[in-house]
């Protein structure tokens, strides 16, 4: 895998690891009070914790399979899964009229899509 792809993948993994950890370990009520955290109130606490867990697993899936060269197909699959999460996040933020957050989510969507495409393409 080339260096720019590793950099993008590593940055995405770090972003999703932090985002997932925040959802998993910060109390629901406190998470809802942070700037841009109002979306949390539209979902149950268990959904937010599950989403955090999935984001952490996705971050791990972006790095470990490629690094260890064990089942490398998991990397693009993790990227596709995280891209789907970003589609959902963009929709939620759009409905809430939080357009700056929509833009950030679309950037993450583009990056995760690029990582998925690059890995699928390198396997063929």
TrEMBL record:
InterPro entries reported in the protein's UniProt record = DoxX
List localization entries. Answer: Membrane
| UniProt entry tagged with the keyword Membrane | yes
Instruction: Give the domain of life.
Output: Bacteria
The main place the protein resides is membrane
TM regions (residue ranges): 6-26, 47-67, 73-91, 103-121
In the bilayer, the protein is annotated as: Multi-pass membrane protein
Q: Name one GO cellular component term.
A: membrane
Q: Where is the signal peptide?
A: none
Which UniProt keywords are listed?
Answer: Membrane, Transmembrane, Transmembrane helix
Protein name, per record: DoxX-like protein
Recite the lineage of the species.
Bacteria, Bacillati, Chloroflexota, Ktedonobacteria, Ktedonobacterales
């Amino acid at each position: 895998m080339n260096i720019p792809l590793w950099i993008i993948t590593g940055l995405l993994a770090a972003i999703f690891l932090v985002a997932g950890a925040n959802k998993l370990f910060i109390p629901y009520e406190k998470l809802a009070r942070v700037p841009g955290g109002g979306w949390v109130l539209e979902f149950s606490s268990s959904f937010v914790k599950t989403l955090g867990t999935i984001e952490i697993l996705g971050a791990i899936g972006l790095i470990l399979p490629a690094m260890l060269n064990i089942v490398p197909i998991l990397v693009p699959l993790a990227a596709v899964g995280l891209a789907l999460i970003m589609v959902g996040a963009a929709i939620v933020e759009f409905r809430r009229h939080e357009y700056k957050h929509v833009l950030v989510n679309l950037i993450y969507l583009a990056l995760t899509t690029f990582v998925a495409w690059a890995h699928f393409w390198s396997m063929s």
